Amino acid sequence: MNLDVFFTPRSVAVVGASRTPGKVGHDVLADLLASGFKGEIVVVNPETDTILNLPCYPDLQSYGRQVDLAVIVVPRDRVLEAIRESIDTGVQAIVVISAGFRELGKEGFEIEKKMVDICRRRAVRMLGPNCLGIINTHHDLNASFAGRYPEKGSISILSQSGAVCAAMLDLCSTRHLGVAKMISIGNKADINEIDLLSWLAKDEQTKVIIGYLEDISAGEEFVKAAEAAAAEKPVVLMKSGVTPTGLKAAASHTGALAPVDSAYGAAFRRSGVVQAENFEALFDFSAALALQPLPRGDRVLIITNAGGPGTMAADAVEKAGLRVAILDNRTITLLREKLPRESAVNNPIDVLGDADPQRYAAAIESAQADDSVDAILLIMTPQTMTRPAETALAVAAAVDGSKPVLASFMGGKDVLPGRNELCAAGLPDFDSPERAVAALRAMHHYALWKNRPPRQITHFRVNRRRVERIITRRLRTGRHTIGEIKGKDILSAYGFKIPNGSLAINQEEAVEIAERVGYPVALKIASPNIIHKSDMGGIQLNLANSEAVEDAYDLMMLKISKRAPEAQIDGIYVEQMIPRGLEVIMGMNRDPQFGPMLMFGLGGIFIEVLKDVAFHLAPITEAEAIQMLKSTRSYSMLENRRDKHGVDINAIASGLQRISQLATDFPQITEIDINPFIVGDIGSEPVVADVHLTLARI
Length: 698
What we know:
The chain has 698 residues and is of the alpha/beta class.
């Protein structure tokens, strides 16, 4: 069943309406009447004859006709009965505003499950419980107790929090930003964010979707629904509850560096969702996307009446990964003709503190005609000669809609008339240049995602049977970790370069292997109980001859016996030394919500201290893999490694794609940690130095 009946009902019943102002049952009915709903309103209350001049019925059965939508506001203990009675009379959709269910514990959760069971057996959808209700301004429907009915517009709001819904409605009203739909999903016992994203994606009145979520019902389904919605219109979401509290103690970097917020961030990037880190950003991004066209590129022009704010804006643009536009010479010539001699006519354009409205208009008109400008940021500060309201009107008249124009009228009382005029004209205004630039950055990233090429996943030729045998044997024996030796066998089957090496169980074998693979060699302890080998003295490098191998073997066994006396020792792995290169770390952590999540970062301080890592959901394309590398702060080191030639970026991207394929092919693998992955100059083949895998406990 689709959700149309929730938004365009012909009749609405308020089950549990109250005569007492301030009670939810009264306010829902009052708001429904105030919205001008043109359909039939049915009031259900067995204890009175009329409420707000409408006749009351003791139950829906007494009404005698079918009702499309029932809004239930009775006490918790009567909700099940109200749902049954509503369905028995032919109600097609139910909103349960009543609270006291799963949010209060086991008993409430059990009642909630029964509610869902009743609805699903009868093919009726339910919104809530514990929700604010629903609004559709294009149908004059306010079936909520939001307290404020917004102006008709194109933004649709969905939220797990009723309070966030109310705050967004209030803010939209203050900024004259029109709303299409408001849906409070509460406990989302039945209808959830996935259902609503799918429906709103097709809703012609909705141009931008805003969402506040505390959890996501089903990760893979969410990504598909969000991607489909974002392909049609901007989707701006804020996800709370993403602090690292309670992070698992993982044995690898991949697991330890993959907190819950990384998973959500990766899911949002993959699906084209614009992620808002806080409430202000949620509104800022939504307003900019609703009111302005998407930028064609990342070149920003700044227009200001003061040097300081212009510099602030330029700094913000650079920090956001955007570019300060370089104006065409013809534009500069034109600006010199239109602006005072003292004005700076490069970028930022300083129209000076005494600027009248016409100067701003002239600057905007010139910038709009310049193909080297993709977006315009207009700044005004209150000075003696400033006329904020008139300037805002002139700016609004000059904007032709060809490029996004965002404003920052900085200050308070003095610029308020101008801010009001900007809002009335449909131009987004921000408290600071930094907030405006953040909105531009969000618009640019969304534009890049929308214009991305079709996703093409590379499928490498691999030896799946070999990996399948290793994993099957490991699970059959009840072992859930795969160490370096078998881990390298797995990666070799998926096309990774592995140094020559073998396992030695005594000193003589170690020397024999070393001479076979060629000096210099490395010795590494092989034990399922020792993951971080170097910490235990389980690694010796650059051994140049047999005597060095013998001494290192004895010393390593001595250290391990003292530091890990209970550890199972399978032997010592003798391996050809890897050529010098840049150490990077890559891997995969299987998120319980979204599936395999790839990780990449540079080794050393970049990962240990700075936590400079990037994440992306598998499967990954080549373009996505390269963008994943570029998203790290340390990417410049890959391009130019200490005055040497840059490393082979494509080779790293290929490695990430191969991990992606491995993780997709084998859902039994929950974690892959390649640390380090040695990368050399362009044209060289990266080498796996060490690897650790974890398998699911079935």
